[in-house]
């Protein structure tokens, strides 16, 4: 088929063009794959389940439409969110994680009137000009796209994830100019759960120095037993951004602000622009509200199963790698997992890339092997399981991983 798209991936010769999905399978016109990516973690419950059919049928039956105006369905969803995310006083709806992060940055800059933004090595905050960089080994910004402004490059400061001493030095040097510290609490590039003391340090530092503390909970939000990473680590943030699994595959992004931030916006009489044709659109908000009702009703069952299979995958693959002396290790935060192709002591993206560099070709071959065996391992390397991931398929995925890891990494 002729390709008219310039979006990433479409010009690849060996691309897969997916057409449909059901439970834990996704389909091209030619082949069925077991999904272990679930729309980059958005489809927490899986693809096309019967409860979703019911919501969509009701949406049509009730003749709900989109209005680009305040609507009842957005209000209803916000009531559900308030129960799950009770540490926030207000929410702002948008349509993607990137948009939520862009607007969260705008809030931080409006309140502080400062331009410098601090993020951690290995963080990913979406397609946002201010964040489309990565850091090199010397913590210098390297752009990930053409078309970015030099000003944005200068305004972004990297701190080394999980390194309190060097982080403090960098923050001390810049603290008067920093509007916010913007961080993924647990990173997709290395889901390291032993990060509480680092996050606590950042939170305390920000409080002491009047810096706005932001968590990007796009991946972690709702994944931890229908709660957040900030609750899991018992750390408060000023602003947090969410999306993905809050709508089980429908496009969503939103921001939660604390009472302190709401008061600042009011007392400074700030006028911050949040608008957008589809912000709080009734299709997504109606769907998400009913999905969250379903999830709440089935919470214990869903998360027990989801955490159980994810834990089993992590433990069994790691045990196998130790037994077979493979230089590979699985990291996990609830149902988000990552195979890191090194068992060395890795604490951030920079060290991960350093140890994985020599294995790049093997990793590509391993991914090809999985694809041949009917397993779709997502390009971003983050494995997500869903409530639809069946025991049978998880066992098949584990056994195939074991065969492949031994074949390519012995
Ligand atoms: C932590 C994090 N932040 C932001 C984003 C961007 O979200 P979106 O792709 O919905 O714009 C992602 C997407 O993968 C993410 O993982």
Secondary structure blueprint with pairings:
Elements: E1 20-22, E2 25-27, E3 32-35, H1 38-41, H2 50-61, H3 72-84, E4 90-94, H4 97-112, E5 116-120, E6 133-135, E7 141-143, H5 150-155, E8 156-159, H6 164-174, E9 178-183, H7 196-208, E10 212-216, H8 229-233, E11 239-243, E12 253-257, H9 259-267, H10 282-297, H11 299-323, E13 329-333, E14 336-340, H12 349-356, H13 360-372, E15 375-376, E16 382-384, H14 391-409
Parallel strand pairs: 3-15, 5-8, 5-9, 9-10, 10-11
Antiparallel strand pairs: 1-2, 2-3, 4-12, 6-7, 11-12, 13-14, 14-16
Helix pairs in contact: 2-10, 3-10, 11-14, 13-14
The structure holds pyridoxal-5'-phosphate.
Features:
410 residues; alpha/beta; Aspartate Aminotransferase, domain 1; Aspartate Aminotransferase, domain 2; 2 domains; seven-stranded mixed sheet; four-stranded mixed sheet; 16% strand; binds pyridoxal-5'-phosphate
Explain the overall architecture:
The protein is of the alpha/beta class and 410 residues long. The protein folds into 2 domains: 20-49 and 299-409, Aspartate Aminotransferase, domain 1 (Alpha-Beta Complex), CATH 3.90.1150.10; 64-296, 3-Layer(aba) Sandwich (Aspartate Aminotransferase, domain 2). Helix content is 41%, strand content 16%. The chain has 14 helices and 16 strands. The protein has a 7-stranded mixed beta sheet, sandwiched between helices. A hairpin with a 4-residue loop joins β2 (25-27) and β3. α13 (360-372) runs antiparallel to α14 (391-409). The mean pLDDT is 97. Bound molecules: pyridoxal-5'-phosphate (PLP). Pyridoxal-5'-phosphate is lined by residues 40, 96-98, 101, 124-126, 184, 188, 216, 218-219, 243, 253.
